[in-house]
Each structure stands twice: as C-alpha cells, then as structure tokens.
Design goal:
alpha/beta; Glucose Oxidase, domain 1; Enzyme I, Chain A, domain 2; TIM Barrel; 3 domains; 8-stranded mixed β-sheet; 8-stranded parallel barrel; binds phosphoenolpyruvate; binds magnesium ion; metal-binding
Length: about 550
C-alpha cells in the first residue's frame, strides 16, 4: 500500500481503479517528411487513422447524453471533414509525413473557421481536438482527453481544463485526483459541482499505473493504493451517509428561525435547471463567461439574451444574480483578453476589460435587459473585479442606462473589502468572491498546488476582510439596505458557512451539490451560536486553528461525514 498526499478539495471516500488522462499530444516537428514508405501507403495510413478516430468518437457519442453527446457527435463529424483530409493529403503527396500533414491542415481549417466567425468559429476547438486525436492514433498513443470507459474509474490527470468538463460523465468518474491545481482551481470547482471527491496537488500521481485500485479521501486529501478492509468500510460508510443526507428542502433556517437563502452558482441554463431541481432558491452567481468559453468572437446580443433567458426561466419566481463577463486569468476569452500579458491575474480582467475593449459590457447589459424583459425573475447584475468606488459608480451608471434596476459588485479584490462602505454607497449589494479574495490577499495564485495552504478561505486575513465588508455594508445602510452574499467556494464548506452567517453574511451561493450539507449544518445551530463560532474563527491565529476550533463546535459534521 502506498499513500499519496495532496490537498482535499471536495469531500467523499471512494474506491476504484485509476485511469490516467493522457497528456496533450505534442506537435510533430515542422518539416517532418515521410520516408521508408510510399505515398499511397502514407495516404492510406492517414485515412485509416481518421476513420478509426471517427469510429471511436461515434461509438462514445452513442452511449453519451446531453452536452457530452453533442460534443462527441460534432467532433466525430470533424474527423472525416473532407476539407481537413484533402488539405492533409495534398501535403502528404508533397512529401510531408502524415502526422505533420494533419497537424498543418488542422491549423489551416481552424484559421478559416475562426475567420468565418459566429457558429463556424465555435467549431475551431473541434478541429484542433480532432487533429490531436488523429496524430495520437498515427503514433499508436492513447487518445487525448477524458479516457473512454464502460466501467467506473478514478480519473487521474495533471489538471483538467474547462473544455474537458463537457465529456466528463459523473456516472463513470468516481473521483478526481490531479497533480496540480489548488482549492479554487477549475478541477476543484468542477468536482464540488458534480459532488465528486477530489484531491489536487498530489505529488507523484502520474506514476500510478492504469488499473491500480485506489482509495480516495477527498476530505483528508489522500490517495492510497491497494486499499484494505479499513478503507473499504470507510467507503461503504461514506456512500451510506451521502444517501442519508438526502436533498435540500428549499428552505434553510437556523434553530432559532433565522432564514439564510441558499442560492446556486451556475454557468448555463442546464446547470440552472439542475440547481432548481436541487432546491436552490435562486442563482447567486451566473458565471456568464462559462456560456462562451471556447468562443473566439463576442457572442451577439440575441445569442447572449437567449442563454441568460434559459437561466431566468429555471427560476421564474426566484432571484438570479448575473455576473458580467469575468474574462482573464483562469478564464481567458480571446475576444476580450490579451494572452501575452505577463501577469494575467493582476491584469486586464473582469470589469477592467471595459477599459481595454469598451462596448462589450454595454452590449452584455443590453442582452441581460432583453432577457429579463417579460421574465418574472428578480434580476440582479454584478461586476467582477471591482477595486474602487469609482468603478462601482460607473458600473451602476451603465446598469441604469440599460434599464437594469439592481446593480452590485463582487468583493474579491482586497481594496473592495477595505473600502466596502464607499463602494456600497454606489450599488445595492455585494457578493464576496472568496476564491479571488483569498488569492489576492494572500498573494497566492489560486491555480498553484504548492500554495494551497495559503489559498485557504479560513485564513485570518480573509475572515477579517469578510467582516470588514459586512461592516461597510451596514455603514452604507442609510442609502438603502445593502445585502452581502458569499458566492465563492467558501460558502460550500458547511463549517465555514456557519462562520459566514455568524459574521453577518445574508445569503450563500454554492454548487447545487453542496446545498443539502450546508443547510443541514446551519439547521443545527442558532444565530447566536453561529456568531460565537465566528468569533472563535476570527480569534484563531491560523487557518488550521480556525477550522479545527469551529469544526469541534459542530458535531453534526462528523455524523454526516462532512
Ligand atoms: C466566485 C468567484 O468567482 P470565480 O471563481 O468565477 O473567479 C470568486 O472569485 O470567489
Ligand atoms: Mg472571482
């Protein structure tokens, strides 16, 4: 038995065989030519590889559903695209190796699609995916992306990109284990959204052979090979506990009747429908950039309005907080962000893109207003990465010009927490983004595994900034009630959720999977007890001591296996 230690980012204990995600396919060397073969054989080799890729993708599409099916079908079609194969063939006839030929032909087709814009530009990623698959097939290597499997497995990878998520089938993937990534990385957010146990920043994960049985403990942050009886019992208990936790009733109240609206973080209409089914009272964070990842061009107003309307329709009587595009750093959008910035997390991202690319924000606000027109949903709009009261003021003006009544800001830059009072005099609400707030106040890149201990929302500095934001909102109250929510991943940690409520946060927004656990734990304390636990957390000298002290005061966590 060997133990691998990492950072637990999504709780749960499971046992299953490992499947390694193949590494990205390396580019065949420029100028590579075929030799020791004939042009007919090289051409036949190319066509056979393209056919094999198509057959494999078609086979997977047949057994897939929803988004994954659509992605697989589109990619399967691209594998036999006559333009791709014809251009590759022309290069092979001129002496280029089949691998290099399909690589260059793929780039040409991708450029052409990009130039056409709109729907065609969205196919760029499919062509690039297909060319990698054909090259892997020609080299006799496993296909890139999430491995195909008919039986459940523990997915091991260096890291997951947002684009991998469409083909990740949560019925087959038991847990995620990655070599890099931090607690707020995409892998972590995805794992919590899907309710999958996950451990990130695991050193040596790439050395675990395919098929090795492992025990993953997503709370402890450990991965054990060849588990024994103790681990089997722990996994069986976890599976029973998660069944017992059941689902969220739709109302969250402390023992003394203090209501805490629990909302969901979503990135699409499909997510929003799932969140509504899971009992969420509304959407506390619509990550609009998730509707348009992989897009090279700005989506048209009508297209945006249709995407937002789908989300509103999932909550006809609830509230939806739409966040304007948060492009940049971990969420690049080629039509808004500059990929060559030396320091993207501190660069032109979030609301700041309005300075570099004016107009996109106003068109997005127009689309939100169009989508809200005729919907009964209560639509709130907030800007990401607000750092000054002046930015808040300008954003509120832009919202007013678009006819949007409830402007707000995300508090995720320390300066916004420190000046919350003057910022909130300009807008009606704040939503604390603890993922970025932690990264910025601790000066620790949220994507980096080795910095995971710094990147912890239990850090005293983060708790102080949350307290300060709540105090700022209270001080700005004379300009109308200012609601403060938390939509970062901190809200999904049931123990920290109690602290947040104790600090005076009004609403919590999280992935739909976390709702039941957070509601159950909040229902076990009174508001006064939550305040006392918050005091204890604030008084602790370290993240670890804050977490330990609060967890000790919440015995229900152990009972529920949270
Ligand atoms: C909710 C947040 O936004 P994102 O994770 O999308 O940056 C945050 O920063 O906490
Ligand atoms: Mg953020």
């Amino acid at each position: 038995m060997s133990t691998f230690v990492g950072v637990g980012v999504s709780p749960g204990r499971v046992i299953g065989p490992v499947r390694q995600m193949p590494r990205a396919v390396a580019e065949p060397p420029a100028g590579e030519r075929w030799s020791d073969t004939t042009v007919d054989d090289e051409t036949a080799h190319l066509l056979a590889a393209a056919k094999a890729v198509q057959a494999e993708l078609r086979g997977r599409a047949e057994s897939a559903t929803g988004d994954a099916k659509a992605v697989l079908e589109a990619t399967a079609m691209m594998a036999a695209d006559p333009m791709l194969l014809k251009s590759a063939n022309t290069l092979v006839v001129a002496g280029t190796s089949a691998e290099r030929a399909v690589w260059e032909a793929g780039a040409q087709v991708a450029d052409m699609l990009r130039g056409l814009g709109g729907y065609m530009a969205e196919r760029t990623q499919d062509v690039l995916d297909v060319r990698s698959r054909i090259v892997a097939e020609l080299r006799g290597l496993p296909a890139p992306g999430i491995p195909a499997s008919e039986t459940p497995f523990v997915l091991a990878a260096e890291d997951l990109a947002p684009a991998d998520t469409a083909t990740l089938n949560p019925d087959l993937v038991l847990a995620l284990v990655t070599g890099s990534g931090g607690p707020q990385s995409h892998t972590a957010i995805l794992a919590r959204a899907l309710g999958l146990p996950a451990v990130v920043a695991v050193h040596g994960v790439d050395g675990i052979d395919d098929g090795t049985e492992v025990f993953v403990d997503g709370a402890a942050g450990s991965v054990l090979t060849n588990p024994g009886d103790v681990e089997r019992t722990a996994a069986a208990i976890w599976s029973e506990q998660s069944r017992a936790l059941g689902s969220y009733s739709g109302t969250c109240t402390t023992t003394d009747g203090h209501r805490v609206p629990l909302l969901a973080n979503v990135g699409s209409g499909a997510d929003a429908r799932k969140a509504a089914d899971a009992g969420a009272e509304g959407v506390g964070l619509l990550r609009t950039e998730f509707c348009f990842l992989d897009r090279d061009t700005e989506p048209a107003v009508a297209e945006q309005a249709a995407a937002y309307r789908e989300v509103f329709d999932a909550f006809p009587h609830g509230k939806v907080v739409v966040r304007t595009l948060d492009a940049g750093a971990d969420k690049p959008l080629p039509f808004l962000t500059d990929a060559t910035e030396p320091n993207p997390a501190l660069g032109v991202r979030g609301y700041r893109t309005e300075l570099a690319t004016p107009g996109v924000l106003d068109r997005q606000l127009k689309a939100i207003a169009e989508a809200a027109d005729g919907a009964e949903t209560e639509v709130w709009v907030m800007a990401p990465m607000i750092a000054t009261a002046d930015e808040a003021h300008r954003f509120a003006d832009s919202c007013a010009a678009a006819g949007l009544q409830v402007p707000g800001v995300m508090v995720e830059v320390p300066s916004a927490a420190l000046t919350a009072e003057s910022i909130l005099r300009n807008v009606q609400f704040a939503s604390i983004g603890t993922n970025d707030l932690t990264q910025y106040v601790m000066a620790a890149d949220r994507q980096l595994g080795p910095l995971a201990a710094l990147n912890d929302p239990w850090q005293p500095a983060v708790l102080q900034l949350i307290k300060q934001t709540v105090a700022g909102a209270a001080a700005a109250h004379e300009n109308g009630n200012k609601s403060v929510g938390v939509c970062g991943e901190a809200a999904a940690d049931p123990a920290l959720a109690v602290v947040l409520v104790g600090l005076g946060v009004d609403t919590l927004s999280m992935s739909a999977r976390a709702l039941a656990g957070v509601a159950a734990v909040l229902a076990s304390v009174s508001l006064d007890e939550a305040r006392k636990l918050a005091e204890q957390a604030l008084g602790a000298p370290s993240a670890l001591e804050a977490r330990t002290a609060v967890r000790a005061g919440l015995p229900i966590l152990e009972t529920l296996g949270l």
